[in-house]
Amino acid sequence: MLYTVVIPCYKSSLTIRKVVGETMEQFEQMKRGEVEFVLVDDCSPDDGATVRELRRLVEDYPNVRAIELAKNAGQHNAQMAALNYAKGDIIISMDDDGQTSPTQLPKLLDEMDKGYDIVYAYYPHKEHSGGRNLGSRFNQWSLRVLIGKPKDMKTSSYWVIRRFVRDYAIQYHSAYTHIQGVFLRVTRNISCVPVEHFKREVGQSGYTFRKLVGLWANMIGFSIVPLRIATVLGYLFSIAGLIGIIGVIIRKLIRPVTAIGWPSVMVSIFFFSGLILLFMGLIGEYIGRIFLGMSNNPQFVVRQIDEHGSAPWLENSRGERFFSEEACADRRNASGG
Q1: Helix (H, G, I), strand (E, B) or coil at 214
Q2: Where exactly are the structural domains of the chain?
Q3: Structure pTM?
Q4: What Cα–Cα distance (Å) separates residue 194 from each residue in 3, 82, 106, 107, 159?
Q5: Which CATH architecture has domain 2-222?
Q6: Which of 67, 70, 95, 152 is the 20 to 30 Å CA partner of 8?
Q7: Are 126 and 197 in contact (CB under 8 A)?
């Protein structure tokens, strides 16, 4: 059996070699089968240090393939890029910083042997800041509310899936990818196991608050719950407004000298105007994403693939290949044109 380990890489020149080496050692100990690696550089802003390290790994290990993206696509889109090149019967996703340790792989694979299609690792204790942990809990709650994640299912970026899950997942081509949402569209035969979360040895997380919010917002592409909330709130406020109008009329009839307050009117205007703008923005977000989806905005663009026999073409998320400007120039020079 062939296992594929997919790892999105972002400024990981100092950590990725250790992750790959320890994973290879773990597979030798488990004696489960062969393993290949698909490493995706998500356009790391480190003057090419990550790309150079990935190329050295390709030279040192024949079972390593490196994918260089032309622009930053985000972790989940980088995972989708890696899945497109995964050949294994079982695909494993890990982080590039060593916090998802390969020593925990036996726990995930033993759970997979029970017949599950997807197995997630989760961390009873995370080596993150308090604010980051709070955000993770909010994200888990949002997953349950927005995309119907089972309450007892805990997720992370450390997961194992079967080949058929990968085959269906890569059919999703939207640029707004949320990997858990994609997987939940494929199967609900999912389990999760507790694993140890290790401290980051080098650097810090590439996730800024803005990126975390953007990733969370991608969940709306898998749910119409926010629109239903808008509808319910519209009904509730309409009923409340009608009751208020009736109350004001009755009060005026009982006490004709009652003065209508200007501040209360202004507060009501501000409140309902804000609510209207909020949901107009939400609906606009849906419409905007539909428009971008129709314009075929790609999940990722591959600049270069480093492996034995790699070709100098670019490839987008739909599998369409086209030669880069540099490759075209080389071909023109070679033909004398």
Answers
A1: helix
A2: 2-222, 225-294
A3: 0.69
A4: 21, 25, 12, 8, 12
A5: Alpha-Beta Complex (3.90)
A6: 152
A7: yes
